[in-house]
């Protein structure tokens, strides 16, 4: 087991119709590798996803939680509710990743280990950079989407971020992060960009470059796209059209 410098880390996994892609052997491996508490969020799946998650949770009650959303709300809302649940349970470091585990268990642990070595930062972004020695395999469609979003990131967040859409991120509990998560996101697929905008421009507007001082991108050594994603071409186009909408001021509680 990896020795973390601080308490258990929460790992939120949003799920919508993932019955054919859930690999519980890999999730069990995550539990074996590090002191991680898995938090599955079932976003009103219409396939056997909820039943499968329930069975896994019953076998690992002390290490796995399950949240069930009755009305489909989108990935962003599933992640938001999962992180809020983890914070409420006393966890101060909460990551989230995709249900297909495109980032394999050992690489998730490597990412979290790196983040634990940076106690003065609050936001950790996985980054899929094709460096020599890295194994980054992405579909052409997702790569194109990623580069388009990355090119427009500065206009939305005020910072040039290489990979806003990577499905592995970690947030450390602090007033800014809690406020950014206090109200639902406007979009289903671009909630990552919306979150970063909230932190850097809306919430911390009087503090300067908040992300530059409190966030870091961590290059991943391995990412393998898994077939069967719920993302479609139409979703990608609609997501791009939502970018101006994200720039509207959010009213926080």
Please characterize this protein's 3D structure.
With 253 residues, the chain is of the alpha/beta class. The chain has one domain: Spore Coat Polysaccharide Biosynthesis Protein SpsA, Chain A (Alpha-Beta Complex). It has helices at residues 24-33, 49-59, 75-88, 105-116, 140-157, 175-180, 191-203, 210-214, 233-241, 243-246; strands at 9-15, 36-43, 64-69, 93-96, 123-127, 135-137, 169-172, 215-219, 222-224. The strands form two sheets. Strands 3-2-1-4-7-5-8 form a seven-stranded mixed beta sheet, with helices on both faces. Helix 1 (24-33) packs parallel to helix 4. The protein is globular and about 45 Å long. The relative contact order is 0.16. Residues 1-6 have low confidence and may be disordered.
Q: What value does the average pLDDT take? A: 87
Compute the separation of the termini in Å.
Answer: 40 Å
Major pleated sheet: 7 strands, mixed
Number of domain modules: 1
What's the CATH first level?
Alpha Beta
Q: Strand fraction band?
A: 15-25%
CATH fold naming: Spore Coat Polysaccharide Biosynthesis Protein SpsA, Chain A
Structural class: alpha/beta
Report the total helices: 10
> Which residues sit in consecutive blocks of at least 5 with pLDDT less than 50?
1-6
């Amino acid at each position: 087991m990896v020795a973390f410098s601080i308490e258990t880390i929460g790992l939120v996994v949003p799920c919508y119709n993932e019955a054919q892609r859930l690999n519980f052997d890999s999730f069990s491996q995550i539990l074996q590798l590090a002191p991680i508490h898995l938090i599955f969020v079932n976003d009103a799946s219409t396939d056997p996803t909820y039943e499968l998650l329930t069975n896994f949770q019953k076998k690992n009650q002390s290490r796995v939680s399950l949240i069930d959303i009755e009305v489909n709300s989108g990935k962003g809302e599933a992640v938001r509710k999962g992180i809020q649940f983890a914070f409420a349970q006393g966890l101060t470091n909460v990551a989230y990743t995709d249900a297909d585990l495109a980032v394999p268990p050992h690489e998730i642990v490597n990412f979290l280990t790196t983040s634990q070595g940076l106690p003065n930062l609050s936001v950790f972004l996985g980054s899929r950079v094709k460096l020599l020695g890295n194994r980054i395999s992405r579909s052409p469609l997702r790569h194109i989407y990623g580069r388009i979003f990355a090119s427009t990131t500065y206009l939305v967040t005020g910072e040039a971020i290489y990979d806003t859409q990577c499905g592995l991120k970690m947030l450390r509990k602090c007033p800014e992060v809690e406020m950014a998560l206090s109200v639902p996101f406007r979009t289903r697929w671009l909630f990552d960009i919306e979150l970063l905008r909230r932190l850097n421009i809306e919430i911390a507007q009087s503090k300067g470059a908040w992300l530059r001082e409190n966030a870091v991108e961590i290059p991943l050594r391995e990412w393998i796209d898994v077939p069967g994603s719920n993302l479609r071409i139409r979703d990608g186009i609609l997501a791009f059209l939502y970018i101006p909408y994200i720039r509207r001021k959010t009213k926080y509680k």
